[in-house]
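Worked problem 6 (solution included).
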Amino acid sequence: MADGKKLSSLDASFLYLETPEMPMHVGSMAIFRLPDDYKGDFFEDFKAMIVSRLHIAPILKARLEKAPLDIDHPSWVEDDQFDIDRHIFRASLPQPRDRATLERIVGWAHAKLLNRARPLWEFYVFEGMKDNEVGLYSKMHHAAIDGGAGAALTSMIYDISPIPRKIEPPAAGSKPGQEPRDIAANLLDSYQQLFSQSLDASAAKKLQLPRTGKSDIGSILFDNAMYQIESAVRFAGNIPTVLKSVSDVLAKVADPRSRESLVSMVSPPTMLNKSISSERSFAGVSIPLSRAKALAKKAGGKLNDVVLALASGVVRRYLLQYGTLPAKSLTAAVPISLREEGNTEANNQVFGMICAIATNVDDPKARLEAIIAQSTKSKEMSHPLRALMPQVSNISMLGAPIMVQILALLYSRSNLSDVLPPAANITVSNVPGPRQTLYAAGAELLHIFPVSISTHGQALNITVQSYRDQLDFGFIVGANIIPYVQVMCDMLPEEFAALEAAYAPPASDIKVAAE
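Solution. The predicted structure is:
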């Protein structure tokens, strides 16, 4: 068996929770503009560029290798039959070949599961669009990537000038697998190191016992035993941090003011919180980043508060049209990155918070102010959990994978999300992106609309990525809940205009200033 890197519990969970109705891949719809004098074949140029840079992101050539009987998490191993033509496709865009048509096709393609026999990513290139534009739809399984790692992959794919930079080819040779005697020697060295130094968080974090990296039963049992020893040592080294976090959580819960915040995080049932089908509807829209930041500054909040306010206003308008807006405020699940600056590992380092988004407030200004207050409280409530997440996010137990998959399938087939209260009503995520203009194979990147995940009970996902001086919003939803999400997407510029008008100075002040 080939040596491999075992998935963390968090990464593997995205595999176990996946069903035909609930694919667990994330992606984007990028729009490029070719130079007026472009004479080449963009598809072939783009594919050749990716091939030349595959060694920068080894995850792109890694496939899954399952453990026997699913008794443990699968591993990433290099695909010795890797074929780039199974991952980058020249796609057809029917007339009128505009962005609306592209969005419909992206929604359709995003509902299709990735083939787990191959590396879990695909690119589709759509040429021949109006105004010399080219569309690129990409998707990659969430088991391999989160928003932070996605930004790192962006730096691999894109350049900061129309002329692609030269990338040094990979060094020849590969690291040989360890022999049993080497593993035994390393194990003895690790134990000697463990017992010869003081046990603190720093030392515990550095402890690494040897692994076989293989997928036979004996190797899996050995590797799992090594992992359990590492986990126990790391947990022991972090006991002071864990105890402080637990104490902080209990103090928050006991505080009467925090109880009010907890009540606000309870989500009312809505039409958006039902079981979803295996079809998706997608749409994208952009607003100016500088104006959104200026609005946040005027309101005394953050950019993310403005994003939440826009999502709140859009959902409020949509539910009002159908007469189904609850009296209680809706909530949003907001992912929070745990990734340290400079960490570009292709894995998931994230947790989340629940925030009330003031959909019960009619006035746009008052709604944003309420969201700023609620998000501050939610951050305070979730802050003690931040230190706990690294301790609990990689819990591993033999036999758990098959059990989790059975439970996920049962939840999906039983339509329990139609009757259980939702954990949150919608998902809203804000991913920071580059401010400078980017290029791929000589084409200028105009937009990069995120395409994220819809789940049972949370049909609507609104993910935002900043690029240059714009915020690109991607709306993805189960098509059985909202067949044409473009209707909701079109409301966002109107909500943004309403927010800007709410914070604009009175006309009398403008007149006095002019005089």
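Discussion: Residues 29 and 167 are 25 Å apart (CA to CA).
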